[in-house]
Specification:
homodimer, alpha/beta, Nucleotidyltransferase, domain 5, about 40% helix
């Protein structure tokens, strides 16, 4: 992410903002200059199992370091945008729950960070941030409506309607991963069963591969995982599939079929111009998106299925970070 | 529907409009005066099996009769609003397909009607019309966002976002009945499998009851249907359930459970303030809505589940008709 984002160039005279993307696995913090330059960038692990108090401490340390590294003082920063993989109450500034952040219940994350820096803090869901990023500066520029889906450990989403981010009544809309597509299906991280996330996420791909290996199916994944089936993850599946492993390809095909069913429901409900599929698992590319598109077309009505374009993000893994920065700017200018 | 709608009283000086609600079973046509009075109202069967040409002829005859019956001439009418149970291409004025209207493929319904009357004709999906009706003049007045669901032969939907009807890119959004909730589930009228409609519509309730009766389960439904299981419909199930029939109650409970799963997906995706459940099957009332609410809460995240109110329509079975009239007025004033 060495580039400058054109939107930020438009706001050249503005102060820098801090953007933080908080996922179940990693936290990325960056300071964006008023001219769009990335002034600093820090990557660290979330270590979510340590619980919210420690993660918040780590967040505050990292934000402090990112400001230092950018050669700035707190007072030179306009605000902080947080994109969190969580069910957010946007009106009360609360992380209410988070399937991939254990023990986060009603955590007032923005206040806990604002208190440390004395800066305005704006929080939104990470996939909503990515939707905003891609709409303003990425693959969806100029569109009226689009859906962003992140397929990684879990599955998240963001919705743009009439050119604006749609947050819903409380700010927790677009939990696309938790559409039930298979009544009484596999257990999901959210505590329920048969959600799209339990069938098409990276976690699901790893689980399906391990189950089939345990049933004795042949595959190079066994060797790739050092003969320990429990070590097989979606990354192992992707590696094996790229080399033509039949079982790995079939597992991805199955997950893509479920993803396509979820896409079809979204297409039937929202009739969007575009669906952008990001997240680590989407880097499988055509291997995943090809059969997902086919499954979507088989399960949706012809008219909306022929309209929607299903594409990869233009901002790659930075969509959420760029969206969080844009959100901080947008909200800051509203309240200023 | 003897009343006057307050919105129409606001437009007292305006010309009358014709509204038509075209369902898979029946067609209701009404003329609304500029002062909101219902000047005439005609009910007829759709007889959809006769195919689109005959249904269009019947529609034109009925609209003509409704105008006559209201004591008006064509030139005294401002326009015609059509609410159709179909997948509509709103930009091209096409009924593209319709699960419950056999052989309707790319029918230019508005032109076929406009040609007969030389009046502007505005078409939208029937459940979207009902959503608009309930939002402007019914249970959802003043709300920012809501979802209307009709549960009858099929399941349809309408979405209001930011106080406006959300039609999607082509005008075919809100096909809520065709979310897949059970991969490889029962066959649906749309040609696919496991859609919400195939598990929670009136058609599904009838089918589930017949299947269980055929398996030999005891029930008063057998007698109610003159000992011919094939005659059992969702109406038979409702009658038996009201008298405490255990099998009938269990079938409704099962369908309500599926309905709740569909509601939960909508609540997770759109985080609405309200969901209004109309349509013939919804007249089962608490028997259906009680377990549907419970199932929704079990399958949705806590925050959006606690926000959403699930209610019956205020306009009853007339929501679509009133919405179609309102839509004709709204579009007429835009193009005037």
């Amino acid at each position: 992410m060495a580039g400058r984002w054109s939107w930020m160039q438009m706001a050249r005279s503005e102060k820098p903002v801090v953007a933080v993307d908080i996922g179940g696995t990693k936290i990325i913090t960056a300071v964006f200059g008023g001219d769009g330059a990335v002034l600093s960038r820090i990557y660290c692990l979330t270590l979510a199992h340590e619980g919210p108090a420690r993660v918040v401490r780590r967040l505050n340390e990292t934000i402090g370091r990112a400001i230092d590294k950018a050669g700035l003082k707190k007072s030179q920063v306009a605000g902080i945008g947080l994109a969190a993989a969580a069910i957010i109450d946007i009106n009360r500034g609360l992380v209410t729950e988070a399937p991939n952040l254990p023990r986060w219940h009603n955590v007032k994350l923005p206040s806990l960070i604002a208190g440390e820096f004395n800066l305005p803090v704006y929080m939104l869901n990470d996939a909503s941030a990515a939707a905003l990023g891609e709409h303003r500066y990425g693959a969806g520029r100029g569109l009226n409506n689009l859906i962003y889906i992140t397929v990684s450990t879990g599955i998240g989403g963001g919705i743009v309607i009439d050119g604006e981010l749609y947050n819903g009544t409380d700010g927790c809309a677009a939990e696309i991963g938790h559409m039930v597509i298979m009544v009484d299906g596999p257990a999901c991280n959210c505590g329920r069963r048969g959600c799209l996330e339990s069938l098409a996420s990276g976690t699901a791909i790893g689980r399906m591969a391990r189950e089939r290996l345990a049933h004795g199916e042949k595959s190079t994944m066994r060797t790739l995982a050092g003969n320990n089936i429990e070590e097989v993850t979606s990354k192992t599946v992707a590696r094996a599939a790229r080399k033509g492993d039949v079982l790995a390809l079939d597992v991805i095909h199955t997950a893509a079929g479920y993803l396509g069913i979820g896409l079809a429901s979204l297409v039937n409900i929202l009739n969007p111009q575009m669906i952008i599929i990001g997240g680590g698992v989407s880097s499988m590319g055509a291997m995943l998106l090809g059969p997902a598109r086919k499954s979507m077309k088989a399960h949706a009505f012809k008219l909306p299925a022929s309209t929607v374009r299903i594409v990869r993000p233009a901002l790659g893994m930075d969509a959420g970070l760029v969206g969080a920065a844009g959100y901080a700017r947008q909200m800051g200018s509203k309240t200023a």
